[in-house]
Design goal:
The chain is mainly alpha-helical. 71% of the residues lie in helices and 0% in strands. The chain has 5 helices and no strands. It is elongated, with a radius of gyration of 32 Å.
């Protein structure tokens, strides 16, 4: 740090900020501090070329499209996850329905003391088909 940078750093009052304990919030806090420091260097004309280039790239159309693409990919992954969950639920419902149809049609002999999961909850017993 040069003499002038030291003078600027010493003349600025430091912010007292709460120390975050979780790694995510700590990471966010460090990013915020770094962004503040870069912003100050840009405003004072002391930013490096790579700092300028970084922020110039963020403003390009390609960067905007890339961010939009990432958002859409996340939405697609969420939809796929939801479809997988719903498919598993539908499979379970179909299996139960097939079981009930088998009992109803007389293909399966059910003992008097056997309870079905749903009927057990309501306290009803299934009757034996003869």
């Amino acid at each position: 740090m040069g003499k002038r940078d030291t003078e600027i750093a010493e003349s600025k009052p430091r912010r007292k900020s709460k120390i975050n304990t979780s790694s995510e919030s700590r990471e966010k806090q460090m990013i915020d501090l770094a962004m503040d420091a870069v912003e100050e260097r840009i405003r004072s004309g002391k930013a490096s070329a790579s700092e300028y280039v970084h922020f110039l790239k963020l403003g390009t159309e390609n960067a905007k499209l890339e961010r939009e693409k990432l958002v859409n990919e996340n939405k697609l992954l969420e939809a796929k996850t939801q479809n997988i969950t719903e498919a598993a639920e539908v499979k379970e419902i179909v299996e139960k329905a097939m079981k009930y149809f088998s009992v109803y049609s007389g293909d399966v002999d059910v003992e008097d003391d056997e309870y079905d999961e749903d009927e057990e909850q309501s306290g009803r017993r299934r009757r034996r088909r003869r």
